[in-house]
Design a protein that fits this description.
Blueprint lengths: L1 H12 L18 H4 L13 E9 L8 E12 L3 E12 L3 E13 L8 E16 L10 E2 L2 E2 L13 E15 L9 E7 L20 E5 L1
Antiparallel strand pairs: 1-2, 2-3, 3-4, 4-5, 5-8, 6-7, 8-9, 9-10
Length: 218
Amino acid sequence: MKKIALFLALGLFIVTTLSGQDIHLSQYDASPIIQNPANTGVDKNMKYRIVNQYRNQWDAVAYKSFISTALAYDMPLKEKWGVGGYVLNDNSSRVFNSFNFTLSGSHDIAMGNQDKHHLLIGLQAGIIHKKMRTGNYSFDSQYSDGSFDTDLPSNEVFEKEVRLMPEVNMGFAYMNTDKSLRYNPYGGLSLSHITNPRENFMSEGYESRLPLKYIIQM
């Protein structure tokens, strides 16, 4: 009991820096190639796989709801390859939009003369398009004498309202397909936004870059 209390007390004083910029879907595991490019066309028994996802948030409280959509496609190519791609779009109440188009490929480098142990490597390349609709924003400087005046200047200097960034992801995975086993081990690691592109819209102040994202699959 003392050990549990000690861990809880330490947890209150641990500060962890988190960065969240990607689209979050409720059933994130329904799109395997979005989680790890090594999963592209990994099932050699299928002809192809199409996944379509939709999420609507804050409809009751926001002026316009937050809508996130995803469309993914992948298929095996011969015995050792997989190809596919996906499209992501996140519309944040019509004031900010993020669009991602990415092509995906994978290769089984450990197949050899056996078909039970598979070491997969995947690579993705594409673009991320982000857009701010600054005309739909309101700022502190536009409030005067207790009321809001859209004719007042925002006093904010935007370098641009549109950002076009490269998207490069890679991943690794191990998969066991031995049907005689009760449990088939699987594990994967993926890295997203490897180029760490600059994404800020302001011309002055802190420089913001899209953080590297790690995903571990078990």
